[in-house]
Amino acid sequence: MPELPEVETTVRALREPLIGRTIIAVHNDWPRHVGMPGLPELQTRIRGQRIERIDRRGKYLVFTLNSGETLIIHLKMTGHLSVVDQDAPPDPYAHTIFVLDQGQELRFRDPRKFGRVYLARDRYEILGSLGPEPLEPAFTVEVLCRRLKGRKRALKPLLLDQGFIAGVGNIYADEALYYAGLHPQRRADSLSEADVTALHASIRQVLQTGIEREGASIDRYVKPDGSKGDMQNAVAVFQRTGQPCYGCETGIVQRIVLGGRSTHFCPICQT
Ligand SMILES: [Zn+2]
Asked: 59 an active-site residue?
């Protein structure tokens, strides 16, 4: 699933072709793609609206429209957005298509159909439950410390909880825990001050590296232009099961299932 760095890469690539464009129609062959307000109302309300800004919040793409309404898209498992000419070959997996002025369209390709589109008058209806944005200056060591306090959950599922921290998914959670030297099953309330400082730094570092490398093309993720990111070449533990740890060189990367998710770690470096 695209995580913060993959969504950020997508947002950055879409700004140039989309800001200032007007949406003139929405085509859709999978009405459940629209989470709110329902397809017919979305089609009516969005027509004629101009895209003024594109931002990211957690794993959501947030399009500010000139009416003040917000178009919000979550890519979920297999979603992909691209801007193409309207006469480009049709894509049977582009279940929602935003037809734009100047002969182009924004295609939401989504083979697994788990993605969602929302049109909100108040964006906090969709985004209000998200935890802090990990790369924002407001996300300090003290904030992380306060949020961990009294939490009995294991670190890995807690990092995946979007209400705890926004944007971290399976890849970057495993990587952040590795660089912090913390076992994914460690109880959140067992961390020392030094542990929290290390975790705070490692979360930011792996996400920043992911953005610099334009995302991890491990499953299906590719950039809007169809090319791959490069983060898959820089992972320390994710899907490196059975291979030697780069850090200690004696540990072998292990895989366990935690909260239903594959989890990778070095049993020597992470305690
Ligand atoms: Zn190791």
From this structure: yes
As a three-state string, the secondary structure of the chain is: CCCHHHHHHHHHHHHHHHCCCEEEEEEECCHHHEEECCHHHHHHHHCCEEEEEEEEECCEEEEEECCCCEEEEECCCCCEEEEEECCCCCCCCEEEEEEECCCEEEEEECCCCCCEEEEECCCHHHHCCCCCCCCCCCCCHHHHHHHHCCCCCEHHHHHHCCCCCCCCCHHHHHHHHHHHCCCCCCEHHHCCHHHHHHHHHHHHHHHHHHHHCCCCCCCCCCCCCCCCCCHHHHCCCCCCCCCECCCCCCCECEEEEECCEEEEECCCCCC
Q: How far is the CA of 220 from the centre of ligand 1 (A)?
A: 28
3 is catalytic: yes
Task: Look up the pTM and report it.
Answer: 0.97
Residue of 3, 8, 105, 175 with catalytic role: 3
What is the pLDDT of the chain when averaged over all its residues? 97
The question of whether 152 is a catalytic residue gets the answer no
Structure confidence by residue, pLDDT tens digits, 63-79: 999 999 999 999 999 99
Catalytic-labelled residue, pool 56, 59, 123, 240: 59
pLDDT at 1: 87
Per annotation, catalytic residue among 12, 57, 153, 261: 261
